[in-house]
Recover the amino acids of this structure.
């Protein structure tokens, strides 16, 4: 499908009309995140803006029987908490095949970190540890709040006052960085007038293809550095991850067996390990061996120390949700606050009202 | 036989139209009602009764959209009718003389949607004329297009765009009233108001009815401008039912979309039936 513009809108309308009429594609392989949006281009819409609601609207085929009979899918080798996000009372309908989260990373050679983890979001804000404070500056409202939508009631999963408090807290953490309160981790650049992180201090967003090339400075492989990794913790003390791509089968397909064979192949270890498809996704493949130092997944060179750190953070995942237009709304709060003269209350009210509208229409 | 042939000819002539109405109106309408009572699509569709109606009517944002749409109609329709009627009455005596004026009234109506939106942005946008004036006067900044004032702006746009069309419709009715009736009333010493209530109004009910119907249709068409001004999710004061319908389609929630459409149809039909019954009674009384 065209990536953006009026051609994409026309293609989306065409497919949606087909689905409405009981036809449409047999297999859906969908990216939740618009790469052009990430790159600062024009935002374009996903085919299923709210995949979890689309499950309730009976668009997708329940796959439990096919999964149980499959030999090559290796269901027991896919992360169960990630895959559970694609399941409702009818069964497993969506198969997430990439997810992402962000960590603050500190070069182990230069920085010594010994704080007890995990902790809750509020504990991060109250901590006196500069590394924890720096990690709390990750701009991720879902990361801090956790679950953002209640699809049963079609309402946001938090109050407007909670969102305002969280936005002010994250803004406060960012202001500390801009005001040079982390001199042990940041250097002042006289040319730009801003504080930049020192060498060995990074924000790593596990959402880019070929992790080794996230930036020129970051190399998690054997030739690279060893990092302490601290995620942004949510209010319940766990890590929030976002599903960025999934596969599903049209409930009205005439060829369910053949359609499942396509998905089955995608989830096999050899495809997850070597296929260029997984390198182009905005996230981490769901196989349990991804992130292990000896697993050798393509685009995922990672040394033993970093592997242990990554797997430790992965074990703390307690909220898994699909990337939706709600995330897009939440991501506008801090930039809008930075770029305009509007009060944060006005921005939050506008965002919260838009979220309520989007959930009501989902 | 001749009668049969004549009837057959008539049926043959209207058959293409009937087929078109059946394919593009009747059958889709039945399908919409079916979708509103079921969940899923195609072979996966299953009947769920009125559960969808319960869910939609309990939905806060649907109530907001519905309320805003009804508020827009409740404010816009009377205003446009009063304004159009006043202008039509003023032009009544000069209708034959100033033909160009009648065309000028239609200019806003035929203006392309994008042109109207650009005009609104130029006047009410953040760097527009009105904010510039209010800023120069030292008044606090008002977000005319993104704040609560957007409802007033949209109403103004609707009135500006569609009043001329209603003036033409009402004027067409006014010029059919015989001048002799007004002359006779003048001889009897009737005042302007008496002539309006006892001569003009009784003969204008059908024209007013049609003007209201077209104003109602144009009110729903106003969504295009609101969409371009406010986007898919505008300020909550101008979040209309069409936004809810449009966005529900994009989320593939056809049940919700169908329910909202059916509910809107019911309300419009009730309003139409009430007013049509009123006009019919008035016309019957006059006859």
């Amino acid at each position: 499908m065209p990536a953006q513009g009026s051609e994409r809108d026309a293609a989306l309308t065409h497919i949606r009309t087909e689905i409405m009429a009981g036809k449409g594609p047999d297999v859906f392989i969908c990216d939740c995140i618009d790469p052009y949006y990430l790159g600062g281009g024009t935002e374009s819409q996903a085919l299923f803006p709210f995949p979890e609601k689309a499950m309730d609207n009976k668009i997708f085929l329940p796959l439990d029987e096919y999964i149980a009979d499959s030999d090559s899918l290796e269901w027991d080798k896919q992360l169960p908490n990630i895959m559970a996000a694609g399941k409702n009372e009818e069964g497993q309908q969506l198969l997430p095949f990439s997810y992402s989260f962000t960590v603050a990373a500190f070069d182990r050679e230069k920085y010594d970190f010994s704080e007890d983890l995990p902790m809750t979001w509020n504990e991060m804000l109250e901590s006196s540890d500069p590394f924890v404070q720096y990690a709390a500056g990750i701009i991720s409202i879902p990361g801090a709040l956790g679950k953002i939508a209640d699809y049963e009631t079609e309402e946001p999963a938090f109050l407007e006052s909670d969102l305002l408090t969280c936005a002010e807290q994250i803004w406060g953490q960012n202001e500390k960085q801009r005001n040079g309160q982390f001199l042990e981790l940041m250097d002042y650049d006289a040319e730009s007038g801003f504080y930049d992180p020192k060498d060995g201090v990074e924000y790593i967003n596990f959402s880019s293809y070929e992790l080794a090339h996230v930036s020129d400075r970051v190399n998690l492989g054997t030739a690279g550095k060893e990092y302490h990794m601290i995620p942004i913790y949510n209010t319940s003390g766990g890590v929030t991850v976002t599903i960025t791509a999934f596969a599903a089968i049209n409930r009205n397909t005439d060829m369910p067996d053949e359609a499942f064979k396509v998905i089955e192949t995608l989830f096999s270890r050899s495809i997850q390990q070597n296929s260029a498809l997984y390198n182009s996704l905005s996230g981490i493949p769901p196989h349990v061996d991804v992130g292990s130092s000896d697993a050798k997944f393509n685009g995922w060179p990672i040394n033993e120390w970093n592997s242990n750190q990554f797997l430790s953070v992965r074990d703390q995942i307690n909220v898994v949700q699909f990337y939706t237009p709600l995330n897009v709304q939440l991501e506008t709060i801090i930039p809008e606050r930075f770029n305009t003269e509007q009060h944060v209350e006005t921005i939050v009210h506008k965002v919260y009202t838009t979220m309520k509208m989007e959930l009501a229409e989902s | 036989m001749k009668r049969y042939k004549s009837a057959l000819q008539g049926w043959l002539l209207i058959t293409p139209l009937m087929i078109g109405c059946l394919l593009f109106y009747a059958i889709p309408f039945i399908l919409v009602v079916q979708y509103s009572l079921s969940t899923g699509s195609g072979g996966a569709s299953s009947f769920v009764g009125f559960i969808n109606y319960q869910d939609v009517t309990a939905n806060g944002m649907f109530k907001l959209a519905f309320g805003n749409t009804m508020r827009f109609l409740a404010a816009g329709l009377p205003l446009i009718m009063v304004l159009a009627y006043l202008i039509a009455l003023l032009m009544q005596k000069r209708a034959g003389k100033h033909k160009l004026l009648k065309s000028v009234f239609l200019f806003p109506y035929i203006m392309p949607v994008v042109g109207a939106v650009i005009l609104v942005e130029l006047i009410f946008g953040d760097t527009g004329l009105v904010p510039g004036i209010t800023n120069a006067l030292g008044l606090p900044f008002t977000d005319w297009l993104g704040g609560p004032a957007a409802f007033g702006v949209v109403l103004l746009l609707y009135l500006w765009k569609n009043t001329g069309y209603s003036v033409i419709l009402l004027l067409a009715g006014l010029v059919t009233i015989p001048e002799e009736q007004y002359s006779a009333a003048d001889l009897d010493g009737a005042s302007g108001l008496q002539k309006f209530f006892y001569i003009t109004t009784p003969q204008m009910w059908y024209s007013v009815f049609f003007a209201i119907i077209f104003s109602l249709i144009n009110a729903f068409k106003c969504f295009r401008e609101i969409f371009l001004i406010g986007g898919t999710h505008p300020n909550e004061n101008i979040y209309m039912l069409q936004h809810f319908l449009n966005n529900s389609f994009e989320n593939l929630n056809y049940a919700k979309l169908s329910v909202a459409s059916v509910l809107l149809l019911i309300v419009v039909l009730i309003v139409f039936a009430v007013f049509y019954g009123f006009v019919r009674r008035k016309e019957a009384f006059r006859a």
